[in-house]
């Protein structure tokens, strides 16, 4: 690997020691001598494919099943699967030791910024050739077009979107919905009016797990406010993003939402990746707050503490007017191949295998077990191929996928475009971190806007390099 990549990863390791990664997988430096060898029983040459996978809300069994299925379909291949809740730390050490995995499952947008760093250092391989015409026809329309698949915006695919989840405001459907205590709001005016009503009944309108969960919310709101062209320009740091009427409307609305009038009072103190985020999620289950930004992974994540009679619901981020189309941000989880992967061709085969009918069925039938309670729950994961979501059993998960593909819904994908490295810039902190300061009164909307304008200037300049 290039020396500058190693230096960057060493710096990243120091940062990671102070930050807890929400999503993780593992690559270890202890097995560098196992790239190939003789199978003692078969006496044949065996190729070892190292897969470093996130251990999180989807559990570990899903990856064990996928690895086994790949081995069975590829003679002479052994998948060496490693998982950990600290991918950024473990994989950084492994790469520094020269132990580069073949395939990595680790998402954009994590606190460590590991995948973003690898992209900025050009340490992730171009895998455009994986997605031939046949595979593209099989996948959901537009799923490969956003910056979360094409991070440089150059038409080349570096990140494979292997799972997808529509996001929005998840709510307590025991209290909100048709025939319930509160009706589902459609517009922001209706949403805040519901907040005033709920406040009188002892319920907060809103909470959020951590500020990082505002990524999908702000993406959807930008598209809602200005349309897809405005949104796509914002992803590439258009200078007018935050000074425009549309951008300012987004900031003003978020500021109102996270203010003390509508956000549950303990939200900020709990909003951390050390477990406090689950307290905020539990507050929705317990009725202390009605809505929060999230994805369907919250069902499995909170299964152990969810009462049997509790109902989840999901709606898109509210609209500013009734006649607008509904924008729903679709979160994707990414798999990628390091530029220095020892088995490049086989790694690409593994990525392509992730879209096979066999893997689709493995993911849809996924189950997870809570480590503390031992409670097993269905945790279906949906691969972004046509028809996969239709196979889901009836229930809230299927409903949220159906809602995201309705005729009047605009599906939104993508993330802030990857730029050349910018010294001292923490993108997540710059964009979403002020949410907490807005809540506490330590920052005004105008100060947040100024910070974003300055950040966009830096990013636009770095994007051109």
TrEMBL record:
Pfam families: SBP_bac_1
Signal peptide: 1-24
UniProt key word Oxidoreductase: no
Swiss-Prot/TrEMBL keywords: Cell membrane, Lipoprotein, Membrane, Palmitate, Signal
Superkingdom of origin: Bacteria
Keyword Transport among UniProt keywords: no
Entries under Gene3D superfamilies matching the protein: Periplasmic binding protein-like II (3.40.190.10)
Protein's UniProt name: Carbohydrate ABC transporter substrate-binding protein
């Amino acid at each position: 690997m290039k020396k500058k990549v190693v230096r960057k990863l060493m710096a990243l390791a120091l940062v990671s020691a102070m930050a807890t990664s929400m999503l993780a997988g593992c690559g270890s430096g202890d097995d560098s001598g196992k790239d190939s060898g003789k199978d003692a029983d078969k006496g044949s040459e065996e190729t070892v494919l190292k897969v470093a996978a996130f251990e999180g809300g989807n559990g570990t069994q899903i990856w064990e099943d996928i690895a086994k299925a790949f081995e069975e379909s590829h003679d002479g291949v052994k998948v060496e699967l490693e998982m950990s809740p600290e991918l950024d730390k473990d994989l950084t050490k492994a790469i520094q030791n020269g132990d580069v995995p073949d395939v990595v499952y680790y998402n954009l947008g994590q606190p460590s910024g590991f995948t973003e760093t690898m992209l900025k250092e050009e340490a992730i391989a171009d895998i455009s050739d994986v997605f031939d015409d046949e595979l593209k026809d099989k996948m959901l329309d537009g799923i490969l077009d956003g910056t979360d698949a094409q991070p440089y915006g150059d038409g080349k695919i570096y990140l494979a979107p292997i799972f997808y989840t529509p996001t929005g405001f998840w709510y307590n459907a025991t209290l909100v919905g048709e025939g319930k205590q509160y009706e589902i709001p459609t517009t922001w005016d209706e949403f805040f009016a519901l907040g005033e009503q709920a406040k009188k009944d002892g319920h907060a309108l809103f909470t959020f797990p951590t500020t990082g969960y505002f990524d999908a919310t702000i993406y959807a709101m930008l598209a809602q406010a200005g349309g897809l062209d405005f949104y796509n320009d914002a992803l590439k740091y258009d200078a007018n993003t935050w000074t425009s009427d549309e951008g300012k409307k987004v900031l003003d609305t978020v500021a109102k939402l996270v203010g003390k009038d509508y956000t549950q009072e303990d939200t900020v103190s709990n909003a951390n990746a050390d477990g406090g985020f689950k307290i905020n999620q539990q507050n929705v289950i317990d009725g202390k707050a009605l809505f929060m930004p999230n994805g369907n992974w919250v069902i499995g994540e909170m299964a152990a503490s969810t009462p049997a009679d509790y109902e989840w619901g999901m709606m898109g981020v509210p609209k500013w007017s009734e006649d607008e189309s509904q924008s729903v941000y679709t979160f994707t989880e990414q798999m990628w191949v390091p530029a220095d992967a020892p088995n490049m061709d086989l790694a690409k085969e593994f990525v392509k295998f992730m879209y096979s009918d066999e893997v689709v069925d493995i993911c849809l039938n996924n189950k997870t077990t809570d480590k503390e309670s031992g409670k097993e729950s269905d945790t279906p994961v949906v691969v972004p191929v046509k028809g996969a979501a239709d196979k889901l059993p009836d229930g809230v998960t299927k409903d949220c996928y159906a809602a995201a593909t309705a005729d009047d819904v605009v599906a939104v994908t993508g993330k802030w475009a990857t730029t050349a490295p910018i010294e001292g810039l923490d993108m997540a902190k710059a964009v979403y971190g002020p949410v907490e300061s807005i809540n506490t009164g330590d920052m005004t909307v105008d100060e947040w806007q100024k910070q974003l304008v300055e950040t966009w200037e830096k990013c636009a300049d770095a994007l051109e390099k």
